[in-house]
Amino acid sequence: FFNLCLNLLTKASQDFSENRNESGTSPDAKTILNLCLKVLCNITNMNEIACQKLGSLDTFMVDCITLLTDQIPNYFKSDDKFDFSTLTLGLLINLIEPCNSNRKIVISAMMKNNQSAIEALAQAFLRHDDAAKVLDQQVDQQIEIFQSQNQIVSSEFEFAQQVQETLESAVGQAGKHMEDTMIAAHIALFFGLILQQNENVAECIKQCLSNRSFEPLISKLNKLVDFLRLIDSLTSVHENAMFKAIEMLERLSDP
User: Rounded to two decimals, what is the model's pTM?
Assistant: First the structure.
């Protein structure tokens, strides 16, 4: 079964480069990946034996990281990127949380472009973190524009139109902002878990981040915790993993 899953991921990867159409990922690859990732997330959830088996398969961990950091950003339609990114991150987090051998595989892994897996993941974090910051600024600018226009509207009807347009734009951008924040936060969680029993790689990870600091990772994780609490979706298992990661990152942030 594990080899079947690996073969499915490999086939999907080949499908990206060979059969991709103008609208994004081919339907076959999308269907295969969706089913495969969901099955793998289920069987690796709090299952150390399954995690060890999958991690021991040739290139499996690298294939998953490549999917997240290269194939999804470059070959998926915008509407699909968030769902597949969170599924892939869920699988990667499951794989490393109980299994230090898988953490060590990630730490030493090299991608096909001779980039380390750590660097590829850090760049993915920075990309989503920067996108969330840009959207924050855009929302703030829209609010400022609305406030200035509010002073010169000529009628109640015009005012109502401006309110509606501003709200619709802000809601749309807030959704995209939350997607980038969620993905960045889960990558931050991944890094926090990687450091368990591997604190010696902390400086290596810092080298790949802005200002060589874990602060952006900690900030995103805290935002994720607050959001999940707000929507009442923070389970005790997730909470423990997140606080463990936050504690690790904060401790290793100290000089």
Answer: 0.81
